[in-house]
């Protein structure tokens, strides 16, 4: 500005003072302004300008037909880079970018109507770029000496920072509410002594079932919880101001209208919160629905108890036959028994060893079945023949306990598709249970018939029955009803688990029924009926044992007792047997004697049985020997490894003597 345009303040008192803008107005060149020189300004404008310049509140005045623009120091900050060029210019030229937003308000003010706007959003360009701003302001008409509206006056405050802060708080609250809503744990906020629901999240609603909660007291919203102790705990926490922590607490809740109470388990915290006076204002509830975890833990504890019970049963059942075996062996060691006593002792050992073998086979059977490793044959079977064979197997026990067994079978044939051995095993197991758990002289009824395209086999007894608490789990592994202290019925609690697994594999189902202890039991097997049975293929006749000299056998086992006993049995059957106790001895013996059959233990001290088999197959002297793996390992992987090593046969200890002798007879027949 040129100094010659300066206006001495004493000439224009209304421009005296006024801070920076007062000084600028005094020094400004007004020749280009639509307002003209301040000396010519009307008194009304002078009065408004004088008030405005001495106010700390952001203000401006727009005067005349072209709305020349005047403002104070506080408003200069709002103008940004538009200051100081905005002084004296036309209102429209200064705020062209927001003119469409504010022009209707300006028109109303120029018509004599004051306006007020709260947080009006305006997109301004005051720093060289567009920015979103918010203002609270009023536009008021300014009249000249004649009472005509000659301009407008604005008092304003920029609320951009407040609006942005509020938006940030709202967004932050929204994020917090989203986290609150999506939290996996249950969350609720209860306010006041009546515990009125203020907030709940999705997990809380899923726990208690969908219902209106907010605005209701806890007792009103959850009436079925009355008497479970939760409301009393809330009252206690609110009165004392002390938090409460609960673990695995049962909660009985009605999750659907009209539905029965459902038991859930929860971990939770009741945490009081306080107002600005330090008084308890409400309770923050946080926790988790741990029902699934609690049930798993209960199942694990039950499984652990079953395991302990099973181990106790296993120890008992194995010790029972071991006792007579040990006693009989000690008597035989003395060498003073007559022939009849030796025969009795031998019979005892054989019988009890067979019992132990049955126990081990049961364990292996149920393991293979439950892991899906059993292959089920599919052949057409006549059910009445299966029933007869199963009864024959159990008949000694039934007769020994003097039971009355009655069978009711239809005259027409009943055909199913299945595995003969497994079906006999299933039915004999159920009959065996009926005989064991029925007092001597009891009654057993076996019925077979057709219902709904199924063959139905029922076994009913008047024995000790099944407790209703045990009945739902009777087919679970290692589950048994209560037995007498002497455990006279025996068994490991795996028979019925095996029965169910096998029946399911055969495409059928099995059920157990009992009205309780002392009222007997009924087991029902259902198998799909074959509508059009085909003629059964004639069974191959078993080959009669060949007569004449036996085969040469090499038996290799590091268990000397087992090797000597088996060798003796084979020699008594007419075979020539050599025994070695390690791999090196076996190789030397095989080279010297060229055995027809070699029985190899897998776990030898010097050479692994599989490796020994490979070496023997590579020897010219033993290349034609029939290799039989004789081992305690009987899983499918063990069988595959034996085959890969070159074994011709695989037998699990203790060897099935009849099967082994039949094999030796086959070899003898081929060598003729």
Strand and helix layout:
Blueprint lengths: L18 H9 L15 H11 L5 E5 L4 E4 L1 H7 L11 H4 L4 H12 L4 E11 L4 E14 L5 E10 L1 H23 L3 E6 L4 E5 L1 H7 L9 H4 L8 H11 L3 E10 L8 E13 L5 E10 L1 H44 L4 H32 L8 E4 H18 L3 E5 L6 E4 L1 H17 L6 E9 L2 E8 L33 H11 L3 E5 L7 E8 L23 E5 L3 H13 L3 E5 L2 H11 L3 E4 L8 H10 L7 E6 L4 H10 L3 E4 L4 H15 L1
Parallel strand pairs: 12-14, 18-19, 18-20, 20-21, 21-22
Antiparallel strand pairs: 1-2, 1-5, 3-4, 4-5, 6-7, 6-10, 8-9, 9-10, 11-13, 14-15, 15-17, 16-17
Helix pairs in contact: 10-11, 11-14, 12-13, 13-14
What does this entry show, briefly?
The chain is an alpha+beta fold and about 675 residues long. It contains 19 helices and 22 strands.
Describe the structure.
The protein folds into five domains: 3-164, 2-Layer Sandwich (Beta-Lactamase); 183-289, 2-Layer Sandwich (Beta-Lactamase), CATH 3.30.450.20; 297-370, Helix Hairpins (Orthogonal Bundle); 379-528, Histidine kinase-like ATPase, C-terminal domain (Heat Shock Protein 90, 2-Layer Sandwich); 552-671, 3-Layer(aba) Sandwich (Rossmann fold), CATH 3.40.50. The chain is 40% helix and 23% strand. It has 19 helices and 22 strands. The strands form five sheets. A five-stranded antiparallel beta sheet has the order 2-1-5-4-3, sandwiched between helices. Strands 7-6-10-9-8 form a five-stranded antiparallel beta sheet, with helices on both faces. The longest helix is centred in the middle third of the chain and has 44 residues, at 291-334. The model is unreliable at 481-490 and 536-547 (pLDDT under 50).
């Amino acid at each position: 500005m040129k100094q010659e345009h300066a206006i001495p303040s004493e000439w224009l008192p209304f421009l005296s003072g006024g801070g920076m803008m007062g000084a600028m107005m005094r020094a400004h060149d007004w020749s280009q302004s639509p307002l003209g020189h301040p000396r010519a300004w009307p008194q009304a404008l002078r009065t408004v300008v004088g008030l405005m310049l001495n106010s700390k509140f952001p203000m401006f005045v727009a005067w005349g037909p072209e709305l020349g623009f005047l403002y104070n120091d506080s408003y200069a900050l709002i103008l940004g880079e538009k200051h100081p060029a905005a002084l004296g210019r036309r209102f429209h030229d200064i705020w062209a970018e927001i003119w469409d937003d504010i022009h209707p308000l300006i028109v109303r003010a120029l018509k004599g109507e004051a306006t007020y706007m709260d947080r009006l959003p305006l997109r301004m360009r005051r720093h060289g770029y567009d920015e979103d701003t918010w203002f609270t302001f009023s536009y008021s008409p300014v009249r000249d000496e004649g009472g005509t509206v000659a301009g407008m006056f604005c008092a304003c405050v920029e609320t951009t920072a407040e609006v942005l802060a509020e938006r940030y708080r709202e967004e932050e609250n929204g994020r917090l509410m989203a986290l609150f809503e999506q939290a996996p744990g249950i969350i609720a906020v209860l306010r006041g002594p009546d515990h009125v629901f203020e907030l709940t999240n999705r997990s809380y609603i899923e726990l208690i079932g969908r219902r209106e909660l907010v605005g209701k007291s806890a007792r009103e919203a959850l009436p079925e919880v009355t008497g479970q102790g939760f409301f009393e705990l809330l009252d206690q926490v609110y009165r004392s101001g002390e938090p409460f922590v609960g673990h695995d607490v049962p909660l009985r809740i009605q999750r659907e209208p009209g539905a029965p109470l459902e038991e859930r388990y929860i971990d939770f915290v009741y945490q009081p919160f306080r107002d600005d006076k330090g008084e308890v204002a409400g309770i923050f509830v946080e926790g988790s629905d741990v029902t699934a975890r609690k049930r798993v833990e209960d199942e694990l504890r039950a499984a652990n108890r079953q395991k302990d019970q099973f181990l106790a049963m296993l120890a008992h059942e194995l010790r029972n036959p071991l006792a007579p075996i040990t006693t009989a062996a000690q008597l035989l060691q003395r060498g003073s028994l007559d022939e009849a006593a030796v025969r009795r002792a031998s019979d005892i050992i054989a019988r009890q060893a067979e019992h132990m073998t049955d126990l081990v086979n049961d364990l292996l059977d149920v393991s293979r079945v439950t892991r899906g490793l059993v292959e089920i044959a599919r052949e057409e079977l006549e059910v009445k023949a299966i029933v007869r064979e199963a009864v024959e197997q159990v008949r000694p026990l039934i007769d020994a306990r003097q039971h009355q067994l009655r069978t009711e079978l239809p005259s027409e044939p009943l055909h199913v598709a299945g595995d003969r051995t497994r079906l006999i095993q299933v039915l004999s197991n159920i009959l065996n249970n009926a005989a064991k758990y029925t007092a001597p002289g009891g009654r057993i009824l076996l019925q077979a018939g057709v219902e709904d395209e199924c063959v139905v086999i029922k076994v009913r007894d008047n024995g000790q029955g099944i407790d209703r608490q045990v009945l739902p789990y009777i087919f679970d592994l290692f589950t048994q009803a209560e037995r007498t202290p002497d455990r006279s019925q025996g068994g490991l609690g795996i028979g019925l688990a095996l029965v169910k697994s096998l029946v399911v594999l055969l495409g059928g189902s099995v059920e157990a029924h009992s009205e309780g202890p002392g009222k007997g039991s009924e087991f029902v097997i259902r198998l799909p009926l074959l509508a059009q049975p085909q003629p059964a293929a004639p069974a191959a006749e078993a080959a009669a044992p060949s007569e004449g000299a036996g085969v040469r056998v090499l038996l290799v086992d590091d268990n000397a007792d087992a090797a000597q006993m088996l060798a003796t049995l084979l020699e008594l059957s007419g075979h020539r047997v050599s025994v070695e106790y390690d791999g090196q001895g076996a190789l030397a013996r095989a080279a010297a004697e060229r055995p027809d059959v070699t029985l190899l233990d897998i776990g030898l001290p010097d050479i692994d049985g599989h490796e020994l088999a490979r070496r023997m197959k590579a020897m010219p002297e033993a290349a034609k020997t029939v290799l039989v793996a004789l081992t305690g390992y009987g899983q499918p992987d063990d069988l595959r490894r034996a085959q890969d090593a070159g074994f011709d046969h695989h037998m699990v200890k203790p060897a099935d003597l009849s099967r082994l002798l039949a094999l030796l007879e086959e070899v003898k027949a081929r060598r003729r």
